[in-house]
Amino acid sequence: MSTNSYAVRDSMTMLRRNLKHAQRYPSMTISVVAMPILMLLLFVYVFGGALGGGISIPGVGGGGDRGDYTNYVTPGILLMAITSGAVSTAVSVCSDMTEGIINRFRTMAISRASVLVGHVIGNVVQTIISLVLVVGVALAVGFRPNAGVIEWLAAIGLLVFLAFALAWISAAIGLGSDSVETASNAPMPLTFLPFLGSAVVTPDSMPAGIRWFAEYQPFTPMNETLRGLMLGTEIGNDAWIALAWLAGLSVLGYLWAKASFNKDAKR
Amino acid sequence: MTATTQPAGASKGINALGLRKSYGEKVVLDGVDLQVAPGTIFALLGPNGAGKTTSVQILSTLISADEGQATVAGHSLEQDPDAVRSEIGVTGQFAAVDGLLTAEENLELIADLLHLDKAEGKRRAAELLERFELTDVAQKSASNFSGGMRRKLDLAMTLVGKPSIIFLDEPTTGLDPRSRRTMWQMIRDLVAGGTTIFLTTQYLEEADQLADRIAVLDGGKIVAEGTADELKRRIPGGYIKLRFDDARHLDAAAHTLSQATRNDEDLTLQIPSDGSIPALRQVLDGLERSGIHAEALTVHTPDLDDVFLALTGQGRKTATTDSATAVKETQR
């Protein structure tokens, strides 16, 4: 029996399994969705007034108000929704590996990658739900994008691509963690990366060292591309740089996760 | 078992030669040879840490051996692991069920992964739930199951694919006596249907009850192999034990029966013996003649415990205090 011909079917079976898990134990999903929504409200209502007037917002300039800042920060909050969502892949993969059932899967003639693909796609689905809710709340608190259908589709494509890339990296981290606690803490730096970019404030307001990091780290071009698509600000080369990062991160995450999974069963 | 058509691998069994595995400095398997005839129960017996689970993990394609080769159901582990996987079923010490799914969903999950069509999967799941008396709890999630129920569901999941060779890694560890007996009966039924069983256990009684052939594994090596009777014959474990009321009688008896070893603490004498009637009569006559009064007499015939303890380098002392390997004696 050829394993590869069943790869898609096995992956779908595993996806159904993971979605059932998420549905039955929704606490993880809820906390993953709640985090970015709280962040959004925090930045809009607590910091929004001060930051809106304090930084030079692209397309607005200095002296903006809370509404301008809501437009500025929402794309970054969407990236944070993805990074915090990705953490749950590490947790679910790691806790799954401690279950005897994974050893059963390993002794069956199924596509080996399907176990991980199920987790990754399951996580992407969960993240999409979280993104829809965050966008809904953002619109309710004054987010006013001017994107057309094409721009929305491109923005959605970018967000899903990022969710996919980070889910693979997070899956690899989950496979490499000895305990669920490690798995939930190890990807934490990921959730902070957007802050050290253009998510919350413009990098030109930062001191030299951090500004340099902010300009070259992967989340900044993604953030700028997203902002450009949704609000019509300048994108330039950022779209290509973002796509290159996403492709690179996906391949890295996939190969890393696959290699970890194919190592001997740990006990 | 309603095995209608046996897969081609059913007539091939298991053959392993010179399996070695070490984790860093620690050698877990040190050249293990195994032959399991098709349609039989083979028991791999050994103390904790002997390498039983590692052997199962290697033969079931979970991990690879550092050296040596093996064929399972006629397929090479190294060259064609997927062919091996489609012939085997594995039920481990830790039940391999998905706790968040119901019993029925667990079985259907396996059916899906075996690429059975939906109707066939549902039919097979219902049949197995019925056979393992799990129909009433089919809609309950497996995390609420007792140890015995989880183990039953685990075995049921293993059987969805009708494997020709089943690995059972300590299938009754942690089960109560009733569940253990139920599990034994299931294992016997499977073999009656033509399945080959590779069983690991640390319970001697289990190997004695079930296995056609037994290999004793200790420190990563097979130290003995044969049928239960062959193994028992290999070691001189039989003796007569006499218990006395007081030290005076014990002294007198020890004097009369010179080949006996005495134990002053519990006032007993142990006389090596094959347990036959003439041998017994000889001991009793000797006591009678000397007017010694013995309180009780027990005859111990060699059993697998003796084999196990003699071969795995554990002293008898630990055995008599350890209830798990308690020496069985026949009270007369």
What do these coordinates show?
The complex is a heterodimer of chains A (about 270) and B (about 325). Chain A is mainly α and about 270 residues long. Chain A has one domain. Helix content of chain A is about 75%, strand content about 0%. Chain A contains eleven helices and no strands. Chain A has helices at about 5-25, 25-55, 65-95, 100-105, 115-140, 150-175, 180-185, 190, 210-215, 220-230, 240-260. The longest helix of chain A has about 30 residues, at about 65-95. The radius of gyration of chain A is 19 Å and the shape is elongated. Chain A starts with 6 loop residues before the first helix and ends in a 5-residue tail after the last helix. The mean pLDDT of chain A is about 90. Chain B has about 325 residues and is α/β, with parallel strands linked by helices. Chain B has two domains: about 10-225, Rossmann fold; about 240-330. In chain B, the strands form three sheets. In chain B, strands 6-7-8-3-9-10 form a six-stranded mixed β-sheet, sandwiched between helices. A five-stranded antiparallel β-sheet of chain B has the order 12-13-11-14-15, covered by helices on one side. In chain B, helix 3 (about 105-115) crosses helix 4. Chain B is elongated, with a radius of gyration of 24 Å. Chain B starts with 13 loop residues before the first strand and ends with a strand. The relative contact order of chain B is 0.13. The interface between A and B is medium-sized, with 25 and 35 residues. Chain A: This is Transport permease protein. Chain A: Pfam families: ABC2_membrane (PF01061). Chain A: InterPro entries: ABC2_TM (IPR013525), ABC2_TM_bact-type (IPR047817), ABC_2_transport (IPR000412), Nod_factor_ABC_transporter (IPR051784). Chain A: It is a multi-pass membrane protein. Chain A: It is found in: Cell membrane; Membrane. Chain B: It is found in: Cell membrane.
